[in-house]
Amino acid sequence: MIDKDQAERNACENVGLDILLCTFHSHKLWLEHLRPLSQSDQKIYWEILNSIERAQSISELEKYLTEFETLPPHEVKQYFLDKWLVGYWLFKWIDLGRPSDRLGLWNTNNYTEAQIRFMSHVLLQCRTANSLARYFLMIFKFYFPRVYT
Q: Which end of the chain is more exposed for a tag (fewer CB within 10 A), N or C?
């Protein structure tokens, strides 16, 4: 998994690796490029891009791509059409077609981040921990509920 960097892409392809874009870094770039828009337009773009990202079939993907194309002309729209919604890059950041045999999360290339998300979502049932000490306390409560009460 890589950031959206042409040099990384070239390096991976030179050694025969297929690439996927990290969702965190993709979203970070989206936010940077959506800034010139009003908040209401940012929300519209964000919702359509997320729908494209989460599409589960080609027909669903085509529906959201068509919806994106109906947005009014703007340099932000053109950026996404040129840099994200093009053949090669499109299938590197959407969920459709990603391998299904991975254990763990596909949306980050950071092992530690993936483990923390796993802990938060699976073991801790989406409760949050704002510090390392709080995390350990939550984990301790999860594994040793009788000791802590």
A: C
For residue 56, what is the DSSP state?
-
Mean pLDDT (the chain) is: 80
Rg (CA), the chain: 19
Single-letter code of the amino acid located at 126: C
CB 52 within 8 A of CB 94: yes
Q: Which residues pair with 2 in a beta bridge?
A: 21
**Residue 101: is it exposed, middle or buried by C-beta count within 10 angstroms (0-12/13-18/19+)?**
exposed
Q: Please determine, for residue 107, whether its predicted confidence score (pLDDT) is greater than 80.
A: no
Separation between Cα atoms, residue 28 and residue 99, nearest integer Å: 23
State the amino acid at position 6 in one-letter form. Q
